[in-house]
Amino acid sequence: MPGTATKVIVTGGAGYIGSHTVVELFHAGYEPIIVDNFVNAEKSSIKGIETILGAKVKLYEGDSGNKEFMERVIAQERGISGIIHFAAYKAVGESVNQPLKYYRNNLDSLLTLMELMKEHHIPHIVFSSSCTVYGQPDTLPVTEKSPKKPAESPYGNTKQICEEILEDTVNSGVPIKVIALRYFNPIGAHPSAEIGELPLGVPNNLVPFVTQTAAGIREKLTVFGDDYDTHDGTCLRDYIHVVDLAKAHVSALQYLGSKSEENSYDVFNIGTGQGSTVLDVINTFEEVNNIKLNYSIGARRAGDVEKVYADVSHANVELRWKTELSLADALKDAWKWQLSLKKN
Ligand code: UFG
Questions:
Q1: pTM, full prediction
Q2: Measured distance CA(166)–CA(176) in Å, rounded
Q3: How far is CA 116 from the centre of its chain?
Q4: Residue 109: closest CA among 154, 161, 64
């Protein structure tokens, strides 16, 4: 029903997690309004979203850190009730080489949005944080109360600083309700294969590297180290299907809408609660897709944590959200997505 749905700005809504969230918001009856500058996203993702939904979505092309531009978006779209803020740079290695680019972009956009929320009385924001704030936790699974560790990279530091900006703003009494979602490792793609991850250049992350190797785009996958203290010696992570992760944002908005206080700050881990090693991922990928992957064991990658997985009980109870999809589902969908790219 045009004009009656709750309007939500989704910065970075053309990106990997953002595009899946736009789909889930729409399904849940919200009106997502995408803001994206397409520096790390493709226009094709908008087409993919619209194909899945069978409807047009609203798109504003520009930088969410540009206040004048965002003022225009807010003026045009009266009655914005919330913001989901995905737009940020996210390459750990690049952030070490170009820290100023990361601090400028990732902090500016949040500061701009917070000022606008205050000035225009936009009450809710859901922020994309990361399990990177925990570093290598002392005990597993990691809960929201586990201590934050000094950031390993400028990227990780921007996530920590952004969480502090949000919390300090709430503590100052500004009438906004905030949720920071600490994502574990998002993988997979929409089961329709209309949207998915589009890494720029050589992927840093495991699953895009796996699918590109299986597709023959990369010759071989290197497993970074097999002498860690895990069941097979390779690093362990909590891999979550991107559609489950997207749905957590809908639950977060619903939770904010149901809260009676007008000023709050909450943090939730968003993972599956299960740890899988690199070899678990490779073996599952081979099994569910009936493919042999060319890989070999190499040296450890600098800065990798040995193992981390989430305690998700806080999100299960408070957000009434839980994952529905498995590692096998995610790896099937990732492969289907990779194959769809080959065709285009
Ligand atoms: N890995 C390989 N070979 C590869 C790529 C990755 O063996 O070619 C291994 C890594 O060593 C690691 C695991 O696969 O053990 C997962 O690596 P990713 O790069 O996919 O993910 P990370 O857990 O290292 O990084 C993710 C996010 C970051 C975030 C970090 C926080 O991508 O944004 O979690 O821990 F900062």
A1: 0.97
A2: 10
A3: 23
A4: 64
